[in-house]
Design a protein that fits this description.
The complex is a heterodimer of chains A (about 500) and B (about 150). Chain A has one domain (about 1-225, about 240-495). Chain A has helices at about 1-10, 15-35, 40-50, 55-70, 75-80, 90-100, 105-135, 140-160, 165-180, 205-220, 240-250, 250-265, 270-285, 300-320, 325-340, 345-350, 350-380, 380-385, 390-405, 410-430, 435-455, 465, 470-480, 485-500, and strands at about 180, 190. By secondary structure, chain A is mainly alpha-helical. Chain B has two domains: about 5-70; about 75-150, no CATH class. Chain B has helices at about 5-20, 40-60, 65-70, 75-100, 100-115, 120-140. Chain B is flat and about 60 Å long. The mean pLDDT of chain B is about 90. The chains are: A mainly alpha (about 500), B mainly alpha (about 150).
Chain lengths: ~500, ~150
């Protein structure tokens, strides 16, 4: 382990990688701080660049960018009451109310430090949990992988969305896209309509860029002239009073760090869900729940810790099983395949230096978050003043060139456009787009493992339930399907004693 | 671009039916076991069922499409702006080989910025500068074969 850590550290401290980390930090902070641009969109636009990087640099760039973007989303939440990314939405009202009370510096100071602490907690849990789970995963067969992917799909629909029905439909669309191309059993081309480019399936990267980049551009076409009344922040004062606040809420931070990482480990749920759950738990156990939403610092500590700790948690299923923890790690899996690396337990044995470097990059990114975050807060008012009517055409051109760059194919630009329209239409009608991406990544895993299991068990369905781990995963999956029933059950159970 | 859940649900039912019909000619495995058609058919079935539920939910909630907004779409500035983005991207796909990245990129950026009421001079300077930098980054540093088209010299 020590040897691997030393090798990873040597790899990480090369000047090229340090430069990549610095550039991706600035990129992540900028995207996170601009309302309307998400960390997932930033990751999608980063992919064409990772195509030209070494595998490690590609992974580190995503780690750094996402950590910075999730924190930077807190800046516009505090200054203009618009969350920079969905992960900051849970505590936007509290942040802005405190800003109105003249406490913007304290809010941003707490944001940057809790983000760093949360990220470090997540990294430590990732370093501890991932190798242990990888040992277990070595014993997995197609039956377990099928259930694990099914659990990921179910969690995406039932837990990670406010409308399971609409999320389910989005997921089915993603799964359908994953069936396009040559089938795994007989090599039959499915839904290709004679188009050669579709024989290998719908390319994941242009689809991602379209769903998250172009749809964002289309959505922002209406608010191009939006101007914010921005509060100016004295950045040199941001750390004043932070230590006392964090000491007071140290137990909250520990709890939310664990919640965030656990939510991250759950396949399909991302940082925004982690923040909302940590917020709800914080309110439940707070001595002053009535202050939540009115300018309380407590939910900012909790949710701010949870959303950054979730990022590392998301990497656990991605690295160990090849099952994405959220839409960003879905992109990471795409990058790993693009680089010829197969995520799964074997990566821990075959490429340990990559895994250890990912661990260390999380630690490095979260330590760097403090100075970079400080600088971002210093220039926050400038970042928030970048006119959208100039920014959006620039993003569109990046989307076009980025999609083309993967295969040097204009067909991919068309795919990006089609996905952009689809993403825009879905979002306009309350249908989330993240499940489409998870469906595209998990679809082949589900189908391949199901067909392999069926063929090797001579079409005996009971085999899916007879292996202990497979049975446990099956039960977990079925319990996830029943999520909408739990509130009704709890209500009935809580009523019954009083009725008696 | 909002449509009622009833209509969206019906759209998914139709999509499910289309996917199912697309698998009708697929062969089976040995002993008649389902092969390439199994997964798409399962998805098609679920899509139709979920879509049906969404339609019913829409009917129960009396969710209706704002027809007036749809009829006035051609006057909606956001929609027109979005159409410029779509037209620009399509123009890029069909013309970039002939015109080249620099010309097409600058033209598309300029037109969209003009549409978004950026001052003409600013739009021109930003469009040319940004696309030149993007060309240098992708074509010269990352070696992406971006066409020079009319600017081949």
């Amino acid at each position: 382990m020590i040897e691997n850590l030393q090798t990873a550290l040597a790899l990480l401290t090369s000047w090229k990688l340090l430069l990549t980390i610095a550039i991706c930090s600035i990129y992540g902070l900028f995207v996170g701080a601009v309302p309307g641009l998400t960390a997932t969109m930033a990751a999608a636009l980063l992919v064409p660049f990772t195509f030209f990087m070494e595998p490690l640099a590609a992974l580190v760039s995503i780690v750094t960018m996402s950590a910075m973007a999730i924190f930077a989303g807190d800046i516009p939440a505090a200054l203009v009451r618009i969350p920079g990314t969905p992960s900051s939405a849970a505590y936007t009202d509290d942040s802005y109310e405190l800003t109105k009370q003249g406490k913007a510096e304290l809010v941003l100071g707490v944001d940057v430090i809790t983000s760093a602490i949360g990220g470090l907690m997540g990294a430590v849990i990732l370093m501890t949990a991932a190798p242990l789970l990888a040992e277990v995963a070595l014993k997995f067969t197609s039956f377990e992988y099928f259930w694990l992917a099914a659990l990921g799909l179910s969690a995406t629909v039932m837990i990670a969305s406010s409308s399971p029905l609409k999320a389910g439909l989005a997921l089915l669309v993603g799964l359908f896209f994953s069936t396009v191309g040559v089938d795994i059993t007989l090599g039959l081309p499915r839904f290709t309509f004679g188009i050669t480019e579709l024989l290998n399936g719908v390319d994941f990267i242009p689809a991602m860029i379209g769903l998250f980049g172009v749809s964002e551009v289309l959505r922002n076409m209406g608010g191009a002239h939006l101007k914010f009344p921005i509060t100016t922040v004295k950045a040199e004062h941001i750390f004043r009073g932070v230590a006392e606040t964090l000491w007071r809420y140290k137990a909250n931070m520990a709890r939310s760090g664990l919640i965030g990482t656990f939510i991250g480990i759950l396949p399909g749920a991302g940082a925004d869900i982690a923040a909302w759950i940590a917020y709800a738990v914080s309110r439940r156990f707070s001595k002053e729940p009535e202050k939540f939403g009115q300018g309380a610092i407590e939910p900012i500590v909790d949710a701010g810790t949870a959303n950054n700790s979730c990022l590392a948690g998301d990497w656990v299923p991605a690295l160990v099983f090849g099952i994405p923890g959220d839409s960003i790690t879905a992109i990471v899996i795409g990058i790993l395949f693009m680089k010829g690396l197969r995520p799964g337990p074997m990566i821990f044995q075959e490429q340990p230096q990559i895994v250890y470097a990912v661990y260390l990059s999380f630690i490095m990114a979260n330590i760097l978050l403090v100075p970079f975050g400080y600088l971002a807060i210093r220039v926050s008012s400038t970042m928030l003043r970048v006119p959208r009517n100039i920014l959006m055409p620039a993003i569109l051109m990046f989307c076009i060139v980025g999609s083309f760059a993967i295969n040097n194919s204009l067909f991919d630009v068309g795919t990006m456009l089609a996905m952009g329209i689809l993403g825009y239409f879905f979002e306009a009608n309350g249908i989330p787009v993240a499940p489409i991406v998870l469906g595209m990544v998990l679809g082949p895993i589900v189908e391949q493992n199901f067909m392999v299991s069926m063929i090797k068990s001579d079409w005996d369905l009971t085999q899916f339930f007879t292996r202990p781990t497979a049975a446990m995963l099956a039960v977990l999956t079925i319990l996830t399907w029943l999520t909408p029933v739990y509130p009704i059950l709890f209500r009935r159970l809580s009523r019954s004693p009083s009725a008696a | 671009m909002r449509v009622s859940d009833t209509v969206v649900g019906a759209g998914f039912v139709a999509a499910g039916a289309l996917i199912f019909s697309g698998t009708l000619g697929y062969p089976t495995l040995e002993a008649g076991h389902p092969g390439p058609s199994l997964f798409p058919r399962l998805l098609a079935g679920l899509m139709a069922v979920f879509g049906g539920f969404l339609s019913v939910q829409g009917i129960r909630a009396r969710d209706v499409t704002d027809e007036v907004a749809w009829l006035r779409l051609h006057r909606n500035p956001s929609f027109i702006n979005a159409m410029f983005v779509l037209a620009g991207t399509l123009a890029y796909i069909f013309l970039v080989e002939r015109m080249g990245f620099l010309l097409m990129g600058a033209l598309i950026s300029f037109v969209i910025m003009w549409r978004l009421q950026v001052r003409l001079l600013t739009a021109a300077v930003v469009a040319i500068t940004f696309n030149t930098l993007a060309y240098l980054l992708f074509a010269k540093i990352l070696r992406v074969p971006l066409s020079l088209g009319l600017l081949w010299f």
